[in-house]
Specification:
Length: 177
């Protein structure tokens, strides 16, 4: 009973006499201080950014850089090629491509010929999002890939006409088939 009374008394004091926290200005004169983080829609900032873009060296623009050439894998055995493709289809960097390519590899890689695996390897050298958009038919594939049987198989796989739930396959599942 006395515990309830002590708690009620503390609560009553908190209502009657709230604590006062001392505060002070962070800047000596807040009205004359310049904003250290200007908003992006500031016209002066937008003009400065446009000038900087116009003055940059075209060789420094990342969007225009060429893709690095793929590694030369001449003399690679079919077993090593297949194992590397299994790994590369699982480790694309985006979950969307990991799921699409790894399940495609699980279903098709064991029966692919060496020539088909080499073509698949070249497709995996393309930028990930480009291949993703080609397979989902959000963007047209370039003429180099548009009429290939590999991309047609991949597009069919992506459509998932059987409505199966797709999960990252175990490595043993890929090697068993």
């Amino acid at each position: 009973m006395s515990l309830r009374i002590a708690h009620a008394a503390r609560a009553a004091r908190a209502i009657v006499a709230p604590r006062v926290v001392a505060s002070r200005a962070l800047h000596a004169s807040s009205s004359t201080a310049k904003d250290p983080f200007p908003l992006p829609f500031d016209p002066a900032l937008a003009a400065a950014a446009a000038e900087a873009r116009a003055a940059r060296n075209p060789e420094d623009v990342i969007e225009d850089w060429a893709m690095p050439p793929p590694l030369d894998r001449t003399g690679e055995s079919p077993d090593v090629l297949r194992a590397r493709l299994v790994y590369q289809t699982r480790k694309r960097g985006t979950l969307e491509n990991d799921l699409l390519f790894s399940t495609f590899a699980r279903d098709n890689l064991p029966t692919m010929t060496v020539k088909e695996m080499q073509e698949f390897d070249k497709l995996l050298d393309e930028p990930d999002w480009d291949v993703y958009y080609w397979c989902t038919e959000k963007k047209p594939a370039p003429s180099k890939w548009a009429k290939t049987e590999l991309l047609a198989k991949l597009k069919k796989h992506v459509k998932n006409e059987g409505k199966e739930h797709r999960f990252m396959p175990d490595l043993l599942d890929v090697q068993k088939k």
